[in-house]
Amino acid sequence: MTDASPARAVLSADNWDGDGRYTVAADLWWGTNATSSRFLENGIEVSSGSLTAATPNAQRAMLQVSGKPKGTNVYTVEFRNAAGVTVSAPLSVAVTHWQRGAGMLPDAPAPRARPAVPTRPCPLGRAHPAA
């Protein structure tokens, strides 16, 4: 069958540790394939791309996510082809903590530079604070 909208994709995520870095996968296991995908996070498009249609083979699209603060994000994916669009059921992903040390803290302040201390020459070749 080539004149049908894509089958409905099933979403899953690998966020077992609850940090803000995970992958959302959209799998289409059977039915008419799609030619493109569009991921939405909390209703806003965050990624889109092309897919190779090879009905009746399975298809997979993936979304890499990182840097998410604590909270719950809801994902859906649209699979499209010339005959139409099919939207997945929503998938909620809970982030329970940030992964420290990996640049994952949003809006972290930059380290402060130390103020320069004026120095005066020393006859022994050492720098000394100016008086």
Short description:
The chain has strands at residues 10-13, 22-28, 36-41, 44-50, 59-65, 71-81, 84-87, 91-95, 119-120, 128-129.
What key phrases describe this protein's structure?
131 residues, mainly beta, Immunoglobulin-like, five-stranded antiparallel beta sheet, three-stranded antiparallel beta sheet, 10 strands, elongated
The fourth-level CATH homologous superfamily is Immunoglobulins
Q: What is the CATH architecture term?
A: Sandwich
The N- and C-terminal alpha carbons lie at a distance of: 87 Å
Low-confidence stretches: 101-107
| Number of β-strand runs | 10
Largest β sheet strand count, sense and barrel closure: 5 strands, antiparallel
The first-level CATH class name: Mainly Beta
* CATH fold topology: Immunoglobulin-like
What is the total number of structural domains?
1
Q: What is the ordering of alpha helices and beta strands?
A: EEEEEEEEEE
Q: Helicity range of the residues?
A: under 10%
Determine the mean pLDDT: 84
Tell the overall outline: elongated
Radius of gyration using CA atoms only: 25 Å
Instruction: Tell me the strand percentage band.
Output: 35-45%
Strand-pairing-aware structural class: mainly beta
Per DSSP, the total helix count is: 0
